[in-house]
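User: Please fill in residues for this 86-position structure.
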């Protein structure tokens, strides 16, 4: 049986986008995953571990460039980076 842990990049065995495991629930054989859809919105869902397989993390700029970019025609953002809650 595969070992899954938070931070791993996975995908559904049937295909789909790379997702990052945010936490696992071993007692129920589940992994909560997060990913970004084609519109750049973050998504979150819990999947059975049997439906996932590990994949190599992609850190290429081409992946980032194909995501929609914010419209900056209105000038600078009104929220400073230091004010964004993380």
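Assistant: Residues filled in for all 86 positions:
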């Amino acid at each position: 049986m595969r070992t899954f842990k938070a931070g791993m990049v996975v995908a559904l065995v049937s295909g789909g986008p790379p997702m990052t495991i945010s936490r696992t629930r071993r007692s129920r054989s589940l992994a909560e995953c997060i990913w970004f859809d084609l519109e750049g919105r973050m998504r979150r869902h819990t999947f059975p571990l049997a439906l996932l397989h590990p994949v190599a993390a992609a850190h290429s700029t081409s992946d980032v460039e194909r995501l929609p970019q914010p419209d900056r025609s209105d000038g600078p953002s009104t929220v400073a980076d230091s004010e964004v809650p993380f």
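For context: Confidence is low (pLDDT under 50) at residues 75-86.
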